[in-house]
Structures are given as structure tokens and as C-alpha cells.
Design goal:
By secondary structure, this protein is of the alpha/beta class. It has a single domain (2-246), classed as Formyl transferase, N-terminal domain (Rossmann fold), CATH 3.40.50.170. It is built from nine helices and eleven strands. It has helices at residues 13-27, 48-59, 74-79, 81-96, 115-120, 138-147, 178-181, 186-214, 239-246, and strands at residues 2-8, 33-40, 64-66, 103-106, 123-127, 152-153, 156-159, 169-172, 175-176, 218-220, 223-225. The protein has a seven-stranded mixed beta sheet with strand order 3-2-1-4-5-7-8, covered by helices on one side. The protein has a two-stranded antiparallel ribbon with strand order 6-9. Helix 1 packs parallel to helix 8. 34% of the residues are buried. This is phosphoribosylglycinamide formyltransferase 1. It comes from Candidatus Methanomassiliicoccus intestinalis. Residues 19-182 form the Formyl transferase N-terminal domain. Pathway: Purine metabolism; IMP biosynthesis via de novo pathway; N(2)-formyl-N(1)-(5-phospho-D-ribosyl)glycinamide from N(1)-(5-phospho-D-ribosyl)glycinamide (10-formyl THF route): step 1/1. It holds the Pfam family Formyl_trans_N.
């Protein structure tokens, strides 16, 4: 059975939904895997979403690792962000090295990984943009989608690499923008498109994880391979699979 490391900042309902969906898909047997650990880079404090994930994981016997990044060596972070990122990554690796994971999933993880961590572990990330398009936060990206009158929009799952949001694409989802955006103000269009993308995020991530768990695709040295061990130069659009899950 595949073992998956789950990385999250668990800041809001989106992160909680991704975690809960993963648990549901594993419980149903649809994804034949288990979580090796849940890593959270924030203290629980009064965050109800974070607390719910921690409580759920602990009840299931899933190790929970909390390493707050917001108060980790603040002086170094202010003076040398790159070196701070490397030191935090070193501490992160110390924390997770005792657990075996076949690959890690960044699910609402709001921190950039250092190069050494990206190289050492096969990690996948959900990014709210189509392949080879935009970088940034969802707000920045969807704003550009609306401003540029893009015909389609969606998310992708890609391999984490030292170059931010530019690792090999594993799979993606796409949907037409105009029917979703509507005829309202710019802000209304952004919110409408974001709502549709958000609705489709969890199915995209789950279907991608399922492909990895079932051996339809595999990760090695930062690249994507087919079942015969050949490096893949193209990546699947999972829109049809996602439509069947949400409609």
C-alpha cells in the first residue's frame, strides 16, 4: 500500500475539504493508500480548520508534525529569506525522515519549499492555473484570466521543483470561462470563476493521486513516467473524470 505524506498550512475550509476528501476516498477503498503523516507549518492556535485536521488525524493514528514557520528564526528570515528557507527545510526533513512516504502531497500548503527538499522527495502540488500559464495566488491568477478574456481556465497538479510552480505537469483540469464568469462586475466574475475552480480542485487532486497509487503514472527524479518506464512528454486532461464526479 502506498504511503503519502500530507503537507498543509490548513488555513481555511479549502485545506480542510482536501484533507476530508482524501480521507473519504481512502476509507471507501477508491484510493488504496494511507497517510504516512500530516505536516502542518502553523500552530493550531484558534484555527478551527487546523484543529479539525489534527483531531481527525490523531483519532486515526496518523502522526501529526507541527513545525510553525511563522516564528521560526525570525531574525534570519528578515535578513536572508533564502538561507531561512534552507534552514527551515533542513528542520522539516529532520522531522519527517523517520516516516516512509512514496510521495508527498501539498494540499493548501502556503510555504515555498527549499531546493534540497524538492530534490530529496517526490512531491506534488496543486496550482490554480493551467499548465504553462500563470504564477501567483489564485486571486492574482483569476484576475489575469478575466482581464485577458481567456477562453478556458483550470488547475494543474505538478511535481515540486526548485523553480517555483514550474515542475513537470502531472495532470490538469480545464473548463470554459464565459459560462461561469457571467456578466457582472470584474470582482463578481473573479469570484464566480474561482468558485468553479475551487469546486473542481479536490476531484482533480484525488484523481491524480489515484493515478499515482494505481501505477498509471510514476514519479522519478523530478519527472513523470508511464507504466513502461518511459518519460512522458504529455500529460492528461482530467476534465471528463472530474465532470463525472461533480455533475
Amino acid at each position: 500500500m502506498k504511503k503519502i505524506g500530507w503537507f498543509t498550512t490548513a488555513r481555511g475550509p479549502g485545506s480542510l475539504n482536501l484533507y476530508n476528501t482524501m480521507i473519504e476516498r481512502m476509507d471507501s477503498g477508491d484510493i488504496n493508500a494511507e497517510l504516512a503523516f500530516v505536516f502542518i507549518n502553523r500552530d493550531i492556535k484558534d484555527n478551527v480548520y487546523r484543529a479539525e485536521i489534527v483531531n481527525s488525524a490523531e483519532k486515526r493514528g496518523i502522526p501529526v508534525i507541527i513545525l510553525p514557520s511563522d516564528n521560526f528564526e525570525p531574525a534570519l528570515k528578515k535578513s536572508n529569506l533564502s538561507e531561512w528557507r534552507n534552514k527551515y527545510g533542513e528542520k522539516l526533513r529532520e522531522k519527517i525522515d523517520c516516516y516512509h512516504m512514496d510521495f508527498g502531497v501539498l494540499a493548501g500548503y502556503m510555504l515555498i519549499f527549499d531546493d534540497a527538499t524538492c530534490i530529496k522527495y517526490p512531491l506534488i502540488n496543486l496550482h490554480p492555473a493551467l499548465p504553462d500559464t500563470y504564477k501567483g495566488t489564485w486571486m492574482e491568477i483569476v484576475g489575469q484570466v478575466i482581464d485577458n478574456s481567456d477562453e478556458s481556465y483550470g488547475s494543474m497538479v505538478h511535481i515540486c521543483s526548485p523553480e517555483l510552480d514550474r515542475g513537470d505537469t502531472i495532470a490538469y483540469d480545464s473548463f470554459p470561462v464565459a459560462p461561469v464568469a457571467g456578466d457582472g462586475s470584474r470582482d463578481e466574475k473573479i469570484q464566480n470563476v474561482r468558485a468553479e475552480e475551487s469546486r473542481r480542485e479536490a476531484p482533480l487532486l484525488m484523481e491524480t493521486i489515484k493515478m499515482l497509487v494505481n501505477g498509471e503514472i510514476s514519479l522519478k527524479d523530478g519527472h513523470l513516467y508511464d507504466p513502461e518506464g518511459r518519460r512522458m512528454e504529455t500529460y492528461p486532461c482530467l476534465a471528463d473524470r472530474i465532470n463525472s464526479k461533480i455533475n
